[in-house]
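Field reference: sequence -> structure
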Amino acid sequence: MPLAKIVYASMTGNTEEIADVVAEKLESLGLDVDLDECTAVDASDFQEADIVIVASYTYGDGELPDEIVDFYDDLQDLDLTGKVFGVIGSGDTFYDEFCKSVDDFEVAFTKTSATKGADSVKVDLAAEEEDIAKLEAFAETLAAKVN
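Structure field:
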């Protein structure tokens, strides 16, 4: 059974919630899912998974959250050839750099030679019904890449 590994950073709980939506959908599609907070794992843990997902909020004016910076740096040194990646995140449209961490992680993943499995999903603050539908579609698209 394919393994999806989701690593998240969440301050308010919004990003953890969207990571949970994706995890539940992937499990319902028959995948094994590991869901971990970013300070509890190493980027190298992605090497044991088939699907690798980062869920991060964006802090202030487009900065990565402090707690995920080391993970982000280490990720770029990995060779994830053959892995399928996806990125989701939450932010606040009040700021000019809405969900910039999502874009930053997409760039980081391209350096690893992983294959982009689905378009990223950006959520304004907490996930609404429309966002949940997008997150579930994101999970379905990723799952289809490995099944």
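Note: Residues 3-146 form a domain with the Rossmann fold fold (CATH 3.40.50.360).
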